[in-house]
Structure formats: C-alpha cells, structure tokens
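In this supplementary section we document a worked example of the pipeline. Step one takes a protein sequence of length 158 as its only input; no multiple sequence alignment statistics are reported here. Step two produces a three-dimensional model, which step three serialises into structure tokens for compact storage. The input and output of this example are shown verbatim.
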Amino acid sequence: MRCPYCQSTNNKVIDSRPSREANAIRRRRECLHCQRRFTTYEQVEDTMPLVVKKDGRREPYQRTKLYEGLKKACEKRPVSIDVIEQFLDDLEREMMDSGARELPSSWIGERVMDALRQWDEVAYVRFASVYRHFTDATDFMREIRHLLATRPQTEKTE
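The serialised model returned by step three reads:
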C-alpha cells in the first residue's frame, strides 16, 4: 500500500476492524518513512453480471446509472433516498445470488418497475415513460389505465 503523503510503500498496519456495514475491513496504517497515519479499506471485489441490452449489447452493471434514474423518477415524491439505496443493495444481492454471468436489462427493469409501483404511482409512470420509450400521451394513458386496473381493490382513489 502506497502512503498518500510520501508515496512510500513501506508501512505497517497498526489497527484492523470491520467497517460499520461489515462489508469491508478498515485498516489504520503508519508509514515507516514519514511516520504519518492513514486509513485503507479492504473489501471483496464483487463481480456483477453483465447487463444484456435489448439490442444485444453487453455492458457492465452500473449502480450509479440506475440510482440516478430512480432518483429522477422519485424527484419531489415521498420516496426517501434510503429506500432507493436499500432497494439497490437488495437488487445487487439478488443479481449476485443468481449466479448468472449475464442478465437481460428487462430482468432489472421489471424489478425496478415493481418496486416503483409499490412506492409511488407517479414515480412509477415517470420511470415507465423512459423505460418503455413512451412517444406520446396515448402511451401515458395506456400505462395509467393498466396501473389503475391492476391496483389492489382495497385502495381508495382520491
């Protein structure tokens, strides 16, 4: 490990402990050259499945890309960032647990749509408009009719 201050690779670990989330090891180090201390984190390198797009292209999974899309859909809606982040953590765990080397983008998209439908109908329609490539108001109306038709009967409309 290279010292961030003097660039020396000669250092020692003076303390190790799990991170708060217990998904990494926090190591406190001391440079033997300049005697300054610094912290490093060691974690397992997760190999996420590749995402297979509708046109057949394959690209690495990008959490930030999905996070930004969800954040945009939920903008000015009663959905907290914590809910979005927990969903992404759960989704990534499901992706890893699947053991698949590749997953179709539709697999991810449908899980996102299901979550948004539960969280907030407006956020759901916003995301659907991009995900399903709405071209005009008819597409919006079709999706809203479908949403209303599949809504649980116990909900009251206001």
